[in-house]
Sequence to fold (605 residues):
Amino acid sequence: MNTAMHIMSIQHQLVLAIGEETDLKKMLYTFLHLAGQCLNTTNNHIFIMQDKQGTPVYQLNNDASIQHFLSFPTRKEGIHTNQSSQLMNLVTDFSEKNIDSEVTQFNSSFYYLFKLGEFGVFIIERKNALSKEIQSALPQVINKLTNSCIASINYHTMVFEIKMRKEVEAQIRYQATHDDLTGLYNRMEVQRCLTKAIQATTVEKKTGYVLSINLMNFKSINDAIGYHVGDKVLRQVADRIKNSTDKETTIAIFNGHEFILIIDHLPANKMKAQLIIGDIIAEIIHTIEHPFELAEGNFSLSCFIGYERFTDNSKTAQDIIKNASIAMYEAFKKSKDKALAYKLIMSEQLNQHIRYTKEIKQALINNDFELHYQPQFDHLYNMIGAEALLRWNHPTRGYESPAVYIPIAEESDLIIEIGNYVLEQACRDIKRLRQRVLPTYFEQISINVSAKQLAKRDFVNNVIAMVNKYQIPASSLKIEITESIMMGNLERSIDGLNTLLKFGVTCAIDDFGTGYSSLAYLKRLPASLLKIDRSFVTDIHLDQSNKAIISMIIQLAKSVNMEVIAEGVETEKEVNCLIELGCYKFQGYYFSRPITFNKLLEYRH
Ligand code: C2E
Ligand code: CA
Ligand code: CA
Fold:
């Protein structure tokens, strides 16, 4: 082969060696390997610009420096340390020079150095010199090598960037569809999943259920112990639900602590599906209500579940979730069953609830509320007081029992506004009443106070302020409370009642006997009067067990030095029977229905 052909062949082989490889190390390895063979070298080295992590970079930046990258033949022990530092010195000197190639001789070897653009150096190590022809043919190959190196580094940077972008995108997608704390799906995502599940259920003719689970006393953990504990509990609840359901179950969380589950692929047969879902629900309740043992203490949660069935696409995902939540809310409100299936009437009641809330707000603005009074009597038919009862003169519904709308107002802060109205109006009426000649035995007007109102910090001050504003004796006002105060902040309520008692405002326990009445509770409350609920009074002369209960209540009251009054007395027979049992105070239709304030003013007994 003539020299020209030989050189071309070398060029050709080396260029081919660079090949199509995108991985820098592999490409250079092949190149060095072939260069060794073609050029009969003892060793070849590549030094390139690398950052601190050893990643090749082709642009000079502060962090990057030229470092040994690869040698071939690769010696087991690598390049000797002293050879390595000698080579490094060679490379550094060479890099600073404004030339593309040079040859030096030391350690009885020839070293041919070629610049790989700005970013690296290629070294051929040989026992003897290269021919001039080969030397001059090499820069062309080196050029190609440089370009390929840059392309490879670029390619990898791009691949890396795409990977990073994909990761960031995946993270963003994850965050957009998941709850941060529990890793469960969020509202948006569960709606999307449910839409798919509805389609599948319709096509496959199966049954699916959406469950809405709410943790009842969760907020108190957050409030009393702190969010960090609340968060831990929430994560554990999420895990427990995951563990107690199938892998395919879609689980989401929204509104802080409302869990939504989609359970589908259940049999089309309603009975069969109902049985399965019943078991699943029982298992979930069991697992959630099992105590949580944390470093901060042991906690227990109770939960309520509402559920809605779907078999086809007649309802939207949004509606099904909403219905399950409505059923959950109903279960919570009734507190009788832990789980309830959605029924249309629940929505109707909820709508009525919403309508009432709006109307109550308007009624407060329009001044549509008024107070009627139901007189109370002793056994000698002397009027001894009266209970203020709220009346709402509704433009279309007329007078309606507060038993209908007070519970609705109690669910929002509207009850506070209503309570404030009642307090002020009653004080105003007491003042007017006292300007007349009162019946001899008339003691006071009592007002009904809801647990929520009593639990308010400013309640006591409001009462005192009103009594002072209208300049009425504190003893002319009594407040009626029910056992529902036990559900709220009992300590604060008791403190408030004690302060009021010192001020002179007394307290009665309303509807006694219908709740959880316990002697211990009765003893702690600074109340002076027990109101026996109408349910025990009605037909007392005919019902032995009610008679026994009332007799017991009277004894109980005596033992804690309280007076009793019977509510809802409707007949003379009831009156006589009550007197026989030792109750001498009455309120009820037999004596008088609730009457307007003007009628009360006219009452003379
Ligand atoms: P309550 O405090 O137990 O009031 C007694 C209820 O029994 C009144 O119903 C009264 O009209 C009714 N009643 C009285 N005597 C008889 C009787 O002989 N037979 C029958 N069948 N019923 C009798 P009303 O006025 O509909 O009030 C219902 C409930 O609404 C009250 O029960 C009370 O819990 C609540 N409420 C009424 N006014 C207020 C108020 O101003 N504030 C608050 N927070 N609640 C109120
Ligand atoms: Ca009452
Ligand atoms: Ca009552």
